[in-house]
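Margin note from the TA: students keep mixing up input and output lines. Inputs are the sequences; the output is the structure of the whole complex. Example:
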Amino acid sequence: MTIKIGIMGYGNLGKGVYSAIKQNPDMELVAVFTRRPKNSIKIQEDAKIVSVDDAKEYVDKIDVMILCGGSATDLPVQGPEFAKLFNTVDSFDTHAKIPEYFEEVDLVAKSNGHTSAISIGWDPGLFSINRMVSEAILPDGKEYTFWGSGVSQGHSDAIRRISGVKNGIQYTIPLDGAINRVRSGDDPNLETKEKHLRVCYVVLEEGVDKNKVEKEIKEMPNYFLDYTTEVNFITEDELKLNHSGMPHGGFVIRSGKTGFNKENKHIVEFSLKLDSNPEFTASILVAYARAVFKMNKEGHFGAKTVFDISLGHLSPKSSEELRKNLL
Amino acid sequence: MTIKIGIMGYGNLGKGVYSAIKQNPDMELVAVFTRRPKNSIKIQEDAKIVSVDDAKEYVDKIDVMILCGGSATDLPVQGPEFAKLFNTVDSFDTHAKIPEYFEEVDLVAKSNGHTSAISIGWDPGLFSINRMVSEAILPDGKEYTFWGSGVSQGHSDAIRRISGVKNGIQYTIPLDGAINRVRSGDDPNLETKEKHLRVCYVVLEEGVDKNKVEKEIKEMPNYFLDYTTEVNFITEDELKLNHSGMPHGGFVIRSGKTGFNKENKHIVEFSLKLDSNPEFTASILVAYARAVFKMNKEGHFGAKTVFDISLGHLSPKSSEELRKNLL
């Protein structure tokens, strides 16, 4: 018996989910659901593609639907909608709106006997786990999150909106000097801009003034103004050749003190170095789909976050096996 | 309302638990229980000391009893015994005997309506969590655990048993070269001895032959023979001055591949750098005491490991607060 998975949306994340399912013998892809014309989807190997309008016909054929849409417009609609029909997993990552989104999905999931894991991934997700656990263990301490090296979609979009820019990409680079100060237990006060460098690779339209574009990028409020920003001009070919991967990663570091006189210092660090952000995120979604499947069988209905799910549920191994071999 | 804690056993770990309780305003120490004569216990500040024989009088006064004894002889007896009377947390770390210990404590805890978190700490504990979760996310991968730099009690004891040795301490040092190969995604095959160096500081009795002792250490089977071992001779004063701390730490690193052709590589790393092994372990026990308290109120009885406990239970914050501020 395998866990039957549906994928809603087949962008980079959906593709990553499909390839992750293939790495997990206890799982099986039933179908990919899409709002696009079915024949517009290029899909690896032999997978079934179904129009989203026919999703309700799959209610009894799918154990968990993994929602692979974006947080801006897709998930706020799809999350509650699909929680009516299926157990779900999503990667909703608009931090400020999580409480509201949780309540909406929770209500629908509970009243339909479904289980929905929301905001799954690495941030929110694994990074949140590490922030929360290390704070609970070392209450007298300081927490630092560094992102990168990796592509920031929002900042890349901001560059591409500038007139005269044909294409571009922005990497967020964590600064070694800042990381080392944190690791040494220095407890520095650091703002995001003191922890990260922004490096841009920009392709210009013909005849556009480099200096003007560079100035416009570096002075863009919120995005670049407060940061050390490096702007490089390259050709479209170079962009395709060297910047089409989607690497990412980051660090969560907590330093804390213990002892009657707070005389002892401890550093807890969690870090990720990812060749492909969407594939790694997808692999997390798939592990949480397993947890959702188990929790639903156990009668735990409603919306769940990484804080509500006991970790053994992520593994295909039994509790006995986990105790014997992984504890 | 605070969570009322008892401490069973007042060695280094018990002391660490007391100081950790003081860092958590939602907790309160009721009493320290001991098998030793009560007046032999030196205790920081004003804590109540009670003979272990009177523990049952505290059944209604204590929410969670933290067992701070050793795994060799104390916990196998105390674990089941105290699970009859109290919710408990312990740091049972004899890996091979965990399944059996779990069953024993589970039976007693369940039939008495108690909750018992067993094998809590950093290894087993936080390291187990990271091994298990990263394996579930990246099934196609390889996992490495490095220990240290830190004091190995077992190896220090082995040195001290050698005739002519007055005192001694052994540090396990993870080898940077091996760590860097793993971090680079090389996936090397490494045995424990290829990952660690053993460094000994030895104080000799007067007139003892250095070379003879050094040879005896380096050729000791199981402990040192297969390792690169460094032996340093120092004075008792130097030992006291430079080697009375209890630092420890280590790394859990998983490298794994994703993608239809396994073309993308990911490195997940968790590391600890601890000034005081017992104080950090104690801080974990205290956070899990909070989880045990909450789970017992929710009606989750029996033995639990780090795999069975949802992480939000470790925090003094409410689920709403966690979603809002830590996700």
